[in-house]
Amino acid sequence: MEVGQTIGNAEALTLEFEWFQRVLEARLNFYFEQPCEFRSVYDIDPPELNPGSSNYGSVVSHYQMSMGERLVLCLALIPHIRPELLDKLFVTDQSLNRGYTAFGGLKAPNHGGFIPTVETALFLLAGDDIELRFLAQELFKPDHYFQEHHILTLGKTDDVEPNNAAALGISKEYLSIFTSGNDYKPDFGDGFPAKLIQTEFEWEDLVLDDHVMTRVNEIKSWILHQGKLMNEWGLGRKLKNGYRALFYGPPGTGKTMTASLLGKVTGLDTYKIDLSMVVSKYIGETEKNLAKVFDQAQNKNWILFFDEADALFGKRTQTSTSHDRFANQEVSYLLQRVEDFKGVVLLSSNFEKNLDEAFSRRFQTMVYFPLPKVDERKKLWKSAFVAEVPLEKKINLDDLARKYELSGGAMMNVVRYVYLMAVNREKPKILLDDLIVGIQQEFRKEGRTLN
């Protein structure tokens, strides 16, 4: 938790909520025809906030929020921070023995407070002025930054309900930013089928062919300098936002490690999509599951990593059955979401030709990860062991690298095996015989035998 930002946010929101209280009190006075010191709620000036002292102030400043926009943002935040401020809206219409329709609002099953709706916001901003209500409704349209940048959330309504009955909320991302000051990291589960992947390795631990490393550095350069390229240099007028790359090659050649390290070295979160929770045999479910990822990732500076992407990005087929037609629709939907995503999308596959050609045409980079050559295997073997456990003198790592063609992942499996053997000895030591057995086991997995 960032203490400075937390204190700054608390101070900014305290001022903002005090202003909101005065506006709400004035609006209620107007509605009930009670005396009020103001002629309009818009006569009540919002507080001046220092953008540098709080995330809340920075966001208000960045978007140059109008008074109406700040009121709506406050209204969405209050149930999470000061829910009692909305208790005044629970007042009962004595003639009807129920709440006032004009106030909108919902009662949640597990929350004792007032849940605001779009109707609540319109009441606050416009009262019963129809023209002002129409203008205020612009704040809830899909093209407003509240929606485009996933700041506010709007609940779903039934077909028979007016749109203004939708619950008004704050996204979890911005709630976290406005309170703790930390970026929100969604939890893996049915609502978000992707895992944040991290690595203890450093960039220097990446052992790749020179050509592969050049391609990977291109992706890193884009992530680090895309702002300059697109904005300062004006390429945003010519190039589409986002970056899409395909990693393909045999298993264990460093594709996942590279994706993790690209996030680590550039300071971005890398989310690995769990395809077992995405791909569904039921029509339309795959698209819904994908939307859970892309909707939350929208306007985030994330790396989305689709491992073993063949299951999702496979070639479209001839539409001989309705199932084929829906499967092709899934690919088309995914193609559109990938193309519209402004962050980085990395796909991993064992075989390049397994992917639909429509995706291939849209990759900025296609990187083949081959099995490591002799020199790369030498580096991998020499970096694999720890000084705490000695190697048997007759072990020659250069000789192992020359004799046995293994992927980096397979070599790490061998290393794990020999340390498990060593830990049971009175005097732990890595033995050549154990290394050979471990290599035999990896060869056997691939249907190969030692010469």
- SSE topology string: HHHEEEEHHHEEHEHEHEHEHHEHEHHHH
Mean pLDDT: 89
Low-confidence stretches: 316-324
* Alpha carbon gyration radius: 29 Å
Largest beta sheet: strand ordering: 7-9-10-11-8-12
Helical proportion, percent range? 40-55%
Can you describe what's shown?
The protein is of the alpha/beta class and 451 residues long. The protein has helices at residues 3-31, 55-62, 67-81, 118-126, 130-136, 145-148, 172-179, 210-232, 255-266, 285-297, 310-313, 322-340, 357-360, 374-384, 397-403, 408-423, 432-445; strands spanning 92-93, 98-99, 106-107, 114-115, 152-154, 168-170, 194-196, 243-248, 269-273, 302-306, 344-349, 365-368. The strands form four sheets. Strands 7-9-10-11-8-12 form a six-stranded mixed sheet, with helices on one face. Strands 1-2 form a two-stranded antiparallel ribbon. The longest helix has 29 residues, at 3-31. The two termini are 57 Å apart.
Describe the secondary-structure layout:
Layout: H1 3-31, H2 55-62, H3 67-81, E1 92-93, E2 98-99, E3 106-107, E4 114-115, H4 118-126, H5 130-136, H6 145-148, E5 152-154, E6 168-170, H7 172-179, E7 194-196, H8 210-232, E8 243-248, H9 255-266, E9 269-273, H10 285-297, E10 302-306, H11 310-313, H12 322-340, E11 344-349, H13 357-360, E12 365-368, H14 374-384, H15 397-403, H16 408-423, H17 432-445
Parallel strand pairs: 8-11, 8-12, 9-10, 10-11
Antiparallel strand pairs: 1-2, 3-4, 5-6, 7-9
